[in-house]
Design a protein that fits this description.
The protein has helices at 48-51, 75-80, 82-98, 144-150, 158-176, 179-182, 192-210, 222-234, 237-245, 258-271; strands at residues 14-16, 24-26, 58-60, 109-111, 115-118, 121-124, 130-132, 137-140. It is α/β, with parallel strands linked by helices and 284 residues long.
């Protein structure tokens, strides 16, 4: 995806902690490890226990950040640098939802390497990108995009990255409007965990429909849409299970099949209407 060269990037929406050590402090009251795993569940189907390992009642203290403001100023920088490109996607996604969701609250995306402390516990890079409702933040090790291609066979491309980011912000929208709090945890192809993830896929498609109107992006091509659809298929539960365990067990699904994930991204992209993303009452 190509950014408008004159678009102004807002790096305050991204915290860059790559290469930095993690510091923790004792939490008042504790209880962070009781976060419902499915609501911060791993985008690529990783082990939720890894997400919340290591803190044992501790929460994140103050953490310094790198400064992207000198490197990521315009859309031209987003076209030239991978990290600036993610800043641009974050800006565009939040510009859209900020105009749609009443009382929208900005959610930062944090770049990290190896591990990071969050309001939901300590996460390693193995968990993939995720949204933590406790601190209303998205976390991502940018090496995930290489993993998506090398381990799970996605074609990659800039709009595959955009899909990942927009999916996680879909969870933020769900949190703000009360869907995450009310959604159930049941696994399985028809379970509420899958329905929650498919709605986030649909919300990602809705953003893609409106992305150009946010002022950051040039018109989207069919090739770019195909990159998103390919990424959605690569992280389908059936595809991942077949790759990791050699068989498909729908009763254990938490995110949806490749076809389901592609279908609901397409629903959002074709309609541009968040109201079309009611995966909880629809036949999925």
């Amino acid at each position: 995806m190509t950014f408008r060269r004159d678009a102004r990037l807002d790096t305050s929406q991204v915290h860059d902690r790559r290469g930095m050590s993690t510091r923790t402090g004792v939490a008042a009251g504790g209880g962070l490890l009781a976060v419902i795993a499915v609501l911060v569940t791993l985008f690529m189907g990783g082990d939720p226990s890894q997400l919340m390992a290591g803190l044992n009642g501790e929460t994140v203290g103050e953490q310094a950040t790198n400064d992207l403001s000198e490197e990521c100023r315009t859309g031209a920088d987003a076209n030239a640098r991978d990290d600036c490109r993610i800043v641009g996607y974050v800006n565009s996604v939040q510009a859209y939802w900020g105009g749609v969701v009443q009382g929208y609250r900005m959610a930062p995306t944090t770049f990290y390497t190896e591990g990071v402390s969050t309001g939901c516990g300590y996460a390693t890079s193995a968990v993939g990108p995720f949204y933590c409702p406790n601190d209303q933040s998205i976390y991502i090790d940018l090496g995930f995009f290489d993993e998506l291609q090398n381990r799970f066979g996605a074609q990659g491309g800039p709009f595959a990255e955009a899909y990942v980011i927009a999916h996680e912000y879909g969870h933020h929208v769900q949190n703000l409007v009360g869907i995450l709090q009310s959604a159930g945890q049941g696994a399985g192809a028809e379970g509420e965990a899958v329905r929650t993830e498919l709605q986030a896929d649909c919300f990602a498609g809705v953003w893609a429909y409106h992305a150009v109107a946010t002022g950051y992006l040039e018109p989207i091509t069919q090739e770019q849409v195909n990159q998103a659809l390919d990424a959605a298929a690569a992280v389908g539960d059936d595809r991942i299970q077949e790759h990791l365990q050699g068989r498909v067990t729908p009763e254990n699904w938490t995110h949806g099949s490749s076809v389901q994930r592609q279908t609901w991204f397409r629903v959002g992209y074709d309609t541009g209407d968040p109201n079309a993303c009611d995966t909880f009452d629809a036949d999925i």
